[in-house]
Amino acid sequence: MSKILLLEDDEVLSETLIELLESENFEVLHVEDGEMALDATFVSKFDLLLLDVNVPFLNGFELLKSLRESGDMTPAIFITALSDVASLSQGFEVGADDYIKKPFDFDELLIRINALLKKRYHTYSNEITIGDFRFVIEKDELYSGSKFIPLPPYELNITRILFQNLNKTVQKEYLLDVLGDGKEMSEGALRVHMTKLRKIGLPIDTIKGIGYRLENS
Fold first, then answer.
1. What CA–CA distance (Å, rounded) separates 4 from 44?
2. pLDDT digits (tens, 9 = 90+) for 119-128
3. Which residues lie closer than 8 Å to 131 by C-beta, 6 or more apart?
4. φ, ψ dihedrals at 141, nearest 5°
5. If you average pLDDT over residues 42-67, what whole number do you get?
6. From start to end of 8-151, where are the E strands?
7. Domain range spanning residue 206?
8. Domain ends where: 76, 95, 124?
9. C-beta separation of 51 from 66 below 8 A
10. Domain count, the chain
């Protein structure tokens, strides 16, 4: 069952959406403000984010920008009454995958949700490939052709994150936080791990001052 985070402060619309989505066998967590939504992403893993923009404390644009900067690439759809080009542009700039304007047809929303989830599951539940390399997500295993490449824990975690964010820059602060697991890791140590991964042939680019990127050229 796919889990959806719904950020919407309109009580009537929220109830309608929850009823609709649950009737389609989605699990829905509903929150009414951006700070609650941010807290929810720290506690639970979601398959999709449905985000209103004009909500209290932290608006939808600010919320998604924060999530993307932290490395959270969960598919996101904005549902909003904003219809100007500037708002549309801003929505995609902060990392939205789709954008639907209120009032909207519920069947259209379901089509958009299912399309995004199908794309996500096709990529993330099986294998991600780049050149001769493929990473099997379910098994946490890296292969070059048919050859299994054993990796120590730090390099395996880095590899998983880079493959899951293929063609996207992953901020070094996010990597340091995840890899440190509550302890402090230095940028020097991170560079050493990246060097080891490059030696096996992974095409990892350094984005100066920002982070690292695994790109399928």
1. 10
2. 765 554 567 8
3. 201, 203, 216
4. -130, 140
5. 88
6. 27-31, 48-51, 76-80, 98-101, 127-130, 133-136, 141-144, 147-149
7. 127-214
8. 124
9. no
10. 2
